């Protein structure tokens, strides 16, 4: 999510190959040269694809002289998104071309955000095809994976002027709606803040099941929604409503 | 939706074959013998399939002596659901077997609810395979079609003791969340109430774009949600949240 104050990211940690086969994997990855650049990537979709992409990107940053292009050398966030898109596309293509015939969907989608010194923070969504779009004032946040349950509250309550603290509250509410409806999304959550101009990760937190503030939000949101619902004007049937 | 007071149904009217090809069709159908039985069917999925099923069911009710089984002669709502499931399954099978090879999805899903004199009101969801499930105290409502955006508020605010008027408000809020997020769902809406014991349609309404109460709900819900959101306790980062 893009705010005037900077970028904020949240991801869950559940992956599944059917409801009888769930695991916990991190879906948030960060590369930083503190003070110079910070790059965060969130992943959704095929886990093998996501991990291959992240590993390839990571290897290149560790021996950048021999292995290019490196995220740590790209001059702009646009180039970073380009590198990630190319890597993602290549991994998917290789899986499809070299593996046995399979019904498996090797696709993955990624959110890429960060800042490189001298340029504004930027936020992209990268498609399995390797191309990408950028967040804007009209569309200031991206969701990947199971997006629908949590979307209405984002559409209604997002404000670019909100503080990181308010944004955490909003993301908790949004994730809580999804967690309550879909088993493919599960705790714990990963949270990360990148304040504009710092070129490094600010706050970060792993939000466990027993996180007291998350529990408070989750339980109070039900009551708050019910109150909001009751506050709406009452409906009455009119004479035209008869059968 | 199943309430202690009876059944309430809502459907939209948009169908599409791509965003450049949208139309308006009714998706709510009713058969009644006032005082003896009332049966309401909601449809989602392939429009040709839905219309064929509804037409077949309807024809049989008009010449029940010659054409069986008829919805108006079935002794229980369970048998009604059975007839609808069988008809649906047959229509889909015929389309698939007799048509040219096609990527088209001929599937459709239906919600069937109503009451036959002497028996409690019952509510079913019928799958394209022809089998079905029944609503219960644990799962007192069904959604078909684009279900996700509107689900969180239903999960949070539903109460079996609510009045029909409160249920209308809830369904408006739920549909409004979906309408705001997905072009495949569109106004006007159809609304219908079946009060337990009456064996006939009570209130019914076509809710147009300019319906004043719907507009009020739609605009106040955004503000109510924002207030609810603000009412949640504030988040603060702790010392453990540093990078």
From TrEMBL, chains A, B:
It comes from the Bacteria. The keyword Ribonucleoprotein does not apply. This is Proteasome-type protease. One of its GO terms (cellular component) is proteasome core complex. It holds the Pfam family Proteasome. GO terms for biological process: proteolysis involved in protein catabolic process. Keywords: Hydrolase, Protease, Proteasome. GO terms for molecular function: peptidase activity. CDD domains: proteasome_beta_bacterial (cd03765).
């Amino acid at each position: 999510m893009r705010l005037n104050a900077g970028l904020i990211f949240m991801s869950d940690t559940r992956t599944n190959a059917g409801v009888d086969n769930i695991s916990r994997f991190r879906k948030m990855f960060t590369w930083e040269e503190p003070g110079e650049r910070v790059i965060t990537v969130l992943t959704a979709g095929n886990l093998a694809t996501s991990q291959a992409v992240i590993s390839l990107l990571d290897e290149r940053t560790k021996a950048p002289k021999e292995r290019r292009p490196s995220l740590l050398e790209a001059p702009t966030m646009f180039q970073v998104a380009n590198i990630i898109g190319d890597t993602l596309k290549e991994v998917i293509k290789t899986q499809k071309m070299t593996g046995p015939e399979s019904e498996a969907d090797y696709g993955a989608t990624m959110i890429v955000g960060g800042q490189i010194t001298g340029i504004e923070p930027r936020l992209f969504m990268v498609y399995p095809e390797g191309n990408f779009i950028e967040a804007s004032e009209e569309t200031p946040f991206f969701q990947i994976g199971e997006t629908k349950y949590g979307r209405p509250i984002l559409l209604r309550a997002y404000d670019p002027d909100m503080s990181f603290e308010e944004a955490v509250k909003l993301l908790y509410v949004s994730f809580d709606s999804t967690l309550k409806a879909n088993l493919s999304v599960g705790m714990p959550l990963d949270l990360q803040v990148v304040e504009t101009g710092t070129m490094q990760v600010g706050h970060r937190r792993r939000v466990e099941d027993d996180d007291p503030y998350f529990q408070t939000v989750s339980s109070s949101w039900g009551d708050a929604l019910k109150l909001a619902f009751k506050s709406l004007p009452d409906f009455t049937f009119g004479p035209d409503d008869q059968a």
